[in-house]
TrEMBL record:
This is Putative pleiotropic regulatory protein DegT. The active site is at 180 (proton acceptor). Gene3D superfamilies: Aspartate Aminotransferase, domain 1, Type I PLP-dependent aspartate aminotransferase-like (Major domain). The keyword Ribosomal protein does not apply. GO terms for biological process: polysaccharide biosynthetic process. The modification N6-(pyridoxal phosphate)lysine is found at residue 180. Coiled coil: none annotated. Belongs to the DegT/DnrJ/EryC1 family. It comes from Bacteroides fluxus YIT 12057. One of its GO terms (molecular function) is transaminase activity.
Amino acid sequence: MIKLSKPYITDQCISNVVEVLRSGNLVQGQFVNQLENDVKSYLGVKHAFAVSSGTAALHLALIALGIGPGDEVIVPAFTFPATANVVELVGATTVLVDINLDDFCIDTSKIEQAITPKTKAIMPVHEFGQAAKMDDIIQLAQKYNLNIVEDAACALGAEFGSKKVGTFGELGCFSLHPRKAITSGEGGILVTNKDDIAEKVAMYRNHGIVYKDSKLDFEVAGLNYRLTDFQAALCIPQLEMLTELIECRIKQANFYNDFLGCTSNIKTPVVFDNRKMVFQTYHILLSDDINRDLLIATLKEHEIEVNFGAQALNALKYYSNKYSYKYSDCPNAFRARVQGLALPLGMHLNDADIKYISSTIKKVLCKY
């Protein structure tokens, strides 16, 4: 079976983990510190916090901004539910805005009409490793005095203009899940350039602990969102190879484009001149006459694992029940959910695999 994705775990990754396990120092040790420093250097930010998941990073971001009951947060309708779930967890109101079907990111032309006096933040998602239109989002945030929390879970290394995503807003949140380019198993990174926000993140990440005058105290009811040292140790060699890992994905995406780009019932990913896409996922959009779920099953019979890309939040039971969202409220998100398809990508593949996957898809689609 050609897997949809597979973590790239080197011998050095394994050696690092063994070193930590043998040391007995399993939590918040030297490798966590190194990972945080390496991320700060890579992104050019003042503060980076390794946390237990990308969801934890998003949750901490909203807590650090003081967002809660009575506040509204704008979220793209097409994303993994964690983006909106953390809004619900802090007691705020989720306001969904549709996406566009070129980059699968929030449609910035539709954000302003969703802003109310209760809006406190915009949470753009850099979907599939593609940067959202951050210039438009920054302009709106400044106009209405809104915070920006970037969900860059899929997009470590992606750029808008000459700047890396996750560094535009008050906070940026990354995932280290196994589907991502680099992984710690479960894990995440939260970054910020603001000292006051960093102080709150550090406190809430670790049970509300604060050290003053060499004395420990608990100033808030905090959480345990720490990353273990052996998870950080697993991740560091991959981070050192990130440029190579991204280049591999871009090369494979270009290969897919060569094979699938002229197929009439497939829309391949759009590449923009002023954005660097890192292709966490190679996501195609099928024409409406294609039964996407049947195609998934057929490709599985050919030993190819594929899957849908993300969820249309307006179609999920929780959000449709609570907010009375209908499919028609965010039609692009719904279409992306039912006609989108994620293809295998990563260092576990070679050119022959990409050619086989592409040719098999074209042969199956010829029957439609």
